[in-house]
Specification:
The protein starts with 9 loop residues before the first helix and ends with a helix. It has four helices and no strands. The radius of gyration is 23 Å and the shape is elongated. The chain folds into two domains: 48 residues; 38 residues. With 93 residues, the protein is mostly helical.
Amino acid sequence: MSTKRRKYDEEFKKRAVRMSYTSERTVTEVADSLGITKNMIYRWRQKYTPAGDKTQIAQQQDEMSELRSRIAELEEENYILKKATAFFAKNQK
């Protein structure tokens, strides 16, 4: 029995976090009404403030992810340039 992983858009996550903070219901009740687990709400609470903005930690994690991607891209470009340099140096002799 395989379960397909569902993806939720950012707006849904923000709404769920806002509901969990503002509602008089428990987090479990809010999660049940949205059809998700309470652990998801707690995880999203770490990423979003009650107002729906990203937390500072989430912003730093996003920035780090972007920087890692950029580093990988630059390393690949550097590798290609090294190979091209060696190729052209060999052909000039």
